[in-house]
Amino acid sequence: AAVKDIEDLVAFLAERRIPAVFVESSVSHKNVRALVEGAKAKGQEVRIGGELFSDAMGRAGSYEGTYVGMIDHNVTTIV
Fold first, then answer.
1. Within 10 A of 18 (CB to CB), how many other CB atoms are there?
2. Are 31 and 38 in contact (CB under 8 A)?
3. What percentage of the chain has pLDDT greater than the value 90?
4. Does residue 8 have a pLDDT over 80?
């Protein structure tokens, strides 16, 4: 993600006082850390609610590697 994209998302989270985000499994951990740290610098504590699958399923051969397992994982993580 571009720096401007992260800055815009940090502002969005801070302005709306969003307490948690769920991260797509293919998103860079570096970008997620930048998001959390940027929000904290603006006085907004943001937790990582968990990892979700959208563009990619879990590892081949794992429960999350099936469509049903991916959906079950996402619902369980959010709820």
1. 14
2. no
3. 82
4. yes
